[in-house]
TrEMBL record:
The lineage of its organism: Archaea, Methanobacteriati, Methanobacteriota, Stenosarchaea group, Halobacteria. Residues 8-67 form the 4Fe-4S Mo/W bis-MGD-type domain. It comes from the Archaea. It comes from Halobaculum marinum. This is Formate dehydrogenase subunit alpha. The gene is fdhF. The keyword RNA-binding does not apply. Its cofactor is [4Fe-4S] cluster; Mo-bis(molybdopterin guanine dinucleotide).
């Protein structure tokens, strides 16, 4: 970029799309974001140096869009949303929440935080829910992505997070097992690191029902049957133990309960694994040998492991496999859940926007923890576990949740079986939505509050490797739009709480006092030293590049093997719905598409939803490439273009998650949940396909 251009500003910041956490400079002029250029300070860009992906480089039209919400909206007696002043809108919000609380109690209220917002904003959102509204019901969309990862890793290793670093560990592993992750399209810069290392000789083993792009680079790709992952992972463990390839010294010195896992995996003979998961014995054996004999292995996964009715069991099995082979707590190895949203690790977890955890993953039912928070906040937080996102909708339909405050989320498109979520949103007596655009969810709102996007605010995001990094403000929010932390603070004050944060830095100072894993983090330090990886317990703590090098996060310092149970998907193919649908992402779009569907350059690449169909399936059904088809499940139907491709196996179809209207895939998915984490089973639904035309 030509730095001499007059009136052009360059702002160091962290990407607002995915959790890889690339750093770059936003280029802006006259309060418009023009694009991104490499950082001036590569030492503070450890993940990406000078590179970014297509979204990070060009995906900013949305910020300048004429569609941005610039003034609050309040629903009038005529049933329509009308422009209002901030005073009118906030008065309505306060009246709405207070009257429900008076008549039905605080637990008739719920709030959703946002993995897109900063740590500071999400921290305030959960504090607002717990101390101002007084409700136990606070959750966020991480419920829908890695809640099963968090549940499983907390039980086995102690922290519900990635154990290692992107560059030094994932970029340097001797071998990889990647499963249920379309890494190239969902985490582009991270996948480049992996591919570069594979090019230099590392082994890459990919198990996935869909031959995703990264599988093209694999030394071994194994197609699996959707929904039977515990079978092949337990099968790998069985083979490794039976052939004495496990790391006995590590198991002996650093773990507990190995015998329970040894017994559990006994039935998973190669023949049984083939029967259940469709993995041929020779493929299982080859993968087991690669994993067991490598010097260091990184286990990488994403939604393909977690979004199942037994997602927690899947991740338990992966953690067991990592422990059996001694691949945790050393360089070049580790467990790597690839997180999705830019700040899902921080805002969606660390900040306590969870029904069971206060900031720093502190237990809401522990009286000592509650004493500490009461001391810090001046108000005692509720001492019960609150409702999870899907439960909020069920309780809304039952009339038990009456008021909902949604910040930066679009549940009317992201929930499974959206028709059901729509019904619940329509039933809710009072809904407040804070967002940067009107979305499918604002259609149901009583009050809409216009917020700021990441280029318009300061704060921090925590990336997938637990690295807390600064976000810089490049532009001002358009019109009357305001930063989320200011809106929440204003509401708290109007509801009688004396909040007076001067800026996001002072909010981080408070976070450091209540969340010990952030104890040494401050904006000043991040500005001087660059990002810091938690746990970072005090001002002298340099942070923790990889976890568990000496001990696991339990009192005795030992990891726990937890045997994983195999289970069937909640819905199996039937005569009426004989195909298996799986959902996912494409490179050019982001989640429900609220941002990227507004960027012409991205829409030029992929402008509408589609269904990928294997050639054999297509031939049987008379579906042609480019033709339109109807995809139906027991819950609803969509009409999309067919893409005939070898990527899915015969009998399996794939639809991306980013589109609305007739392309909204969550019309098809169902409400089946993992019993531990509450994650919905997006990855397995039964459908049928009917050709409409030849395109
Ligand atoms: Fe942003 Fe992720 Fe792309 Fe990096 S890889 S530029 S963090 S979207």
């Amino acid at each position: 970029a030509d730095r001499r251009l007059k009136g052009v500003d360059f702002t160091e910041t962290t990407c607002g799309f995915c959790a890889v956490g690339c750093r770059f400079q936003l280029v802006s002029k006259d309060d418009e974001v023009l694009g991104a250029v490499p950082t001036d300070d590569p030492d503070h860009a450890p993940v990406n140096d000078f590179s970014t992906c297509v979204k990070g480089k060009f995906g900013y039209e949305f910020a300048n869009s004429d569609d941005r919400l610039t003034t609050p909206l309040v629903r009038g007696d005529d049933g329509e949303l009308h422009e209002a002043t901030w005073d009118e809108a906030l008065t309505r919000v306060v009246e709405g929440f207070e009257s429900i609380r008076e008549e039905s109690g605080a637990d008739a209220l719920a709030a959703f935080a946002s993995s897109k917002c900063t740590n500071e904003e999400d921290y305030l959102m959960q504090k607002f829910a717990r101390t101002v509204l007084g409700t136990k019901n606070i959750d966020n969309c991480a419920r829908l992505c890695h809640s099963s990862t968090v549940a499983a890793l907390k039980q086995t290793l102690g922290f519900g997070a990635m154990s290692n670093r992107i560059n030094e560990d994932i970029g340097e592993a001797d071998a990889y097992l990647i499963t249920g992750s379309n890494t190239t399209e969902s985490h582009p810069v991270l996948s480049t690191r992996i591919k570069r290392n594979v090019h230099d000789g590392a082994d890459l083993v990919v198990f996935d029902p869909r031959k995703v792009e990264i599988a093209e680079h694999a030394s071994q790709y194994v197609r699996t049957k959707p929904g039977y992952d515990v079978a092949w992972i337990n099968g790998l463990i069985r083979y490794i133990v039976a052939n004495d390839l496990h790391d006995e010294a590590f198991i002996e010195e650093r773990t507990r309960n190995f015998e329970e896992v040894r017994e559990k995996v006994e039935p998973f003979t190669p023949e049984e694994v083939e029967r259940l998961a469709g993995v041929p014995p020779e493929e299982l054996e080859r993968a087991a040998e690669t994993i067991a004999t490598a010097d260091s292995v990184v286990f990488g996964w994403a939604m393909g492991m977690t979004q199942h009715s037994h997602g927690t069991q899947n991740v338990l099995a992966l953690a067991d496999l990592a422990l059996v082979t001694g691949n945790v707590g050393k360089p070049g190895a580790g467990v790597s859940p690839f997180r999705g949203h830019n700040n899902v690790q921080g805002g969606g977890g660390d900040m306590g926007t969870l029904p069971n955890n206060l900031p720093g993953y502190r237990d809401v039912t522990d009286p000592d923890v509650l004493d500490e928070f009461e001391e810090a906040w001046g108000v005692r937080p509720p001492d019960e576990v609150g409702l999870k996102v899907p439960e909020v909708f069920t309780e809304a339909l039952a009339g038990n949740v009456e008021g909902l405050y949604v910040m930066g989320e679009n549940p009317a498109l992201s929930e499974p079986d959206v028709s059901h979520a729509e019904e619940a949103l329509a039933e809710l007596p009072f809904l407040v939505v804070q967002d940067i655009f009107e979305t499918e969810t604002t259609e149901y709102a009583d009050v809409v509050l216009p917020a700021a996007t990441f280029s318009e605010k300061e704060g921090t995001f925590t990336n997938t490797e637990r690295r807390v990094q600064l976000v810089g403000q490049a532009t001002t929010p358009p019109g009357g739009a305001r930063q989320d932390w200011r809106i929440i603070q204003d509401l708290a004050r109007r509801m009688g709480h004396d909040w007076s944060y001067a800026d996001p830095a002072s909010i981080m100072d408070e976070i450091a006092t209540v969340a010990p894993i952030y104890g040494g983090i401050s904006h000043d330090r991040l500005r001087e030293e660059g990002g810091l990886q938690w746990p970072c317990r005090d001002a002298d703590d340099p942070g923790t590049p990889y976890l568990y090098d000496e001990e696991f996060n339990f009192d005795d310092g030992r990891a726990r093997f937890v045997p994983a149970d195999t289970g069937e998907p909640g819905e199996l193919p039937s005569e009426e719905y004989p195909l298996t649908l799986t959902t996912g992402r494409v490179l050019y779009h982001w989640h429900t598409g609220t941002l990227t569907r507004r960027v012409e350059g991205l829409m030029d690449h992929v402008g509408e939803a589609f269904v990928e169909v294997n050639p054999a399936t297509a031939e049987r059904l008379g579906v042609v490439d480019g033709g339109r088809v109807r995809v139906e499940s027991a819950r609803g139907a969509i009409e999309v273009r067919a893409e005939v491709s070898e990527r899915p196996g015969d009998g399996v179809v794939f639809v991306p998650m980013h589109f609305a209207a007739e392309g909204a895939v969550n019309r098809l998915t169902g409400e089946r949940f993992d019993p531990t984490s509450g994650i919905p089973e997006y990855k397995v639904s039964s459908v049928r396909l009917t050709p409409i035309d030849d395109g």
